[in-house]
Design goal:
263 residues; 17-stranded antiparallel beta sheet
Length: 263
């Protein structure tokens, strides 16, 4: 009689593709917050006073000034250099997406906040963090409208590096990402208490890992493409263990060990 320890040990959540387009919460003493806010305001006000309004019809000559640029696809107001947005500015596009932050040579670059507009697929979601060449790059926080949240590293608009993802259903992942997918070492915790800790590749459990089930049982061994493959041991909640060679989640050449004594 074969014992199948599920190809899919626990029900996987539907994983929405959040990856395309961390900041730690830091507690400050309130007076310091007020002081910093005042300083930022004063610095911003001083800068606004320093930059004159852009003059003339030839936009290529707009340098070290503040101006407005309108087209059918976007509206920009802010700093200019050599005729391009450069410095601090506010941009709203045809999707209703609004970006407030830093620009460099006409592109979003540096610190900024982006609120996705009503016509954008990510409508209502908010990203706060670093940008480069118009896309998130560096550390950032993405708060999705459906309640999901990502905090961590980005590279060219995708999750890349270390980060954490809280899913809408309450599941949580913390670990490595590569080009928008889970990669390397990571820990996935399910809302029902189940937990996987180990290696990932291409968004699936792959390599050495430990899967703990809500029932109290656990599997320790090798995974491949999201299922037990290779040598591994399943331990029941009563202490009995099931050692086997696994193929796509199926135990072969199994041996049951450590059976509990009957009363």
């Amino acid at each position: 009689m074969g014992l199948r320890i599920g190809v899919t040990p626990v029900e996987r959540p539907r994983r929405r593709e959040y990856g395309l387009i961390s900041i730690r919460n830091i507690m400050f003493v309130r007076p310091i917050v007020i002081l910093v806010s005042v300083l930022v305001f004063l610095i911003s006000a001083s800068k606004a006073e320093e930059l004159p309004s852009c003059a003339g019809e030839d936009r290529e000559n707009w340098t070290n000034c503040q101006g407005t640029l309108n087209s059918d696809n976007f509206h920009y107001i802010g700093d200019f250099a050599e005729g391009k947005p450069h410095g601090d500015g506010l941009l709203e596009d045809a999707f209703g997406t609004r970006y407030k932050g830093q620009f460099r040579q006409g592109k979003k670059d540096g610190r900024g906040e982006m609120t996705f507009g009503s016509k954008h697929p990510l409508s209502g979601s908010i990203y706060v963090g670093q940008f480069k060449d118009d896309v998130p790059h560096g550390q950032g926080v993405m708060q999705y409208l459906d309640g999901a949240k990502y905090e961590g590293a980005y590279q060219f608009g995708q999750f890349h590096g270390h980060g954490s993802m809280k899913f809408t259903n309450g599941d949580h992942y913390r670990g490595g990402f590569r080009v928008g997918k889970k990669e390397g070492f990571g820990i996935y915790t399910y809302v029902d208490g189940a937990r996987y800790e180990g290696r990932w590749r291409n968004d699936q459990e792959h390599g050495r890992g430990r899967q703990t089930y809500a029932s109290g049982g656990k599997y320790v061994g090798n995974f491949q493409n999201g299922a037990p493959n290779g040598e591994g041991v399943y331990t029941f909640s009563n202490g009995a263990s099931y050692k086997a060679t696994w193929v796509d989640g199926e135990p072969l050449q199994a041996t049951i060990e450590n059976l509990p004594l009957k009363d």
